[in-house]
Structures are given as structure tokens and as C-alpha cells.
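Quick question, first post here. What does this chain look like in 3D?
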Amino acid sequence: MGEVRITRDFPVTPERLFSAITQRAEVLEWWGHDGMTLPDTALDFTREGPWHSEMRDADGNRYRMSGRVTHVDPPHSVGFTWTWHLPEGMRAPESHVTFTVTPAAGGARLTIDHRALPDDDRAARHETGWTSGPMVRLARHLQTHPN
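> Answer (accepted):
Ran it through. C-alpha cells below.
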């Protein structure tokens, strides 16, 4: 199975970073890529249970994903399953994501472990997806809202 590990430091406290990655109002600020809207979401990572999101790009293309929050350990980690919904109504294979927050010099470190990805090019696509969109947007969100 494929795996992706991404690590990024932010100039905020671990508690602040954990809030930004779990609280629905904040997740809506950085989830997805620039230019996308989130017309239908249940992105509350503060409790175990189901979640879902639909992103739409400027051309109206819809990208649906869902899963289940498997654990929440404030302010250290949150884990959830992840699957894409395919246009033909089927679901892609399920993978698992863990966000881990640890202290770092000058702030907090976020490590994203995305595991159980199929052994094809999806791991590379997910790595590009996390680093080119959400992590850029999360950094921007935390610069604007450091407290």
C-alpha cells in the first residue's frame, strides 16, 4: 500500500494549530484548493463519527469525499478515513489520514500521514494535493488568524 508523509512547521502554539485543523469553521478556511467552493460539508474533526465534503471548481466540477473520524486526542492528533466518490456513484478504496501536532522550534509541527493508498499513482497525487492546496491555505489562514 502507498503512503504519504508531509511535515510542516507553523509559528503558532500546538493548541492553536490543533484548533485550526479540527474546528469546522477553521477547516472550511483551508480545506481544498484556491478557487474551490465547499457547498456541502460536514468537516467537524472534533468528535468521532462521519464526515463529508464536496468541493466545486470554477468550471462546476464536483469532487466528493467522505470518511469517518476514528480518533481525536486534543491537542495531539486526529485520525480519519478518507475515500473519494467516483462520478459513476462508486467509492474509491478507503485510506486513512492522521494529523499529528507536536511542539517545534518557534511553534508547532503538523505531520500528515496518509496511509493505505492503492499501489498506483494515487500516493503521489495525494502528496501533491496536500502540499499544493490545503497546506498552503492553512499557512495563510494561520498567518491571518494566529491566535
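The chain has a mean pLDDT of 92.
Residues 122-132 form the longest helix (11 residues).
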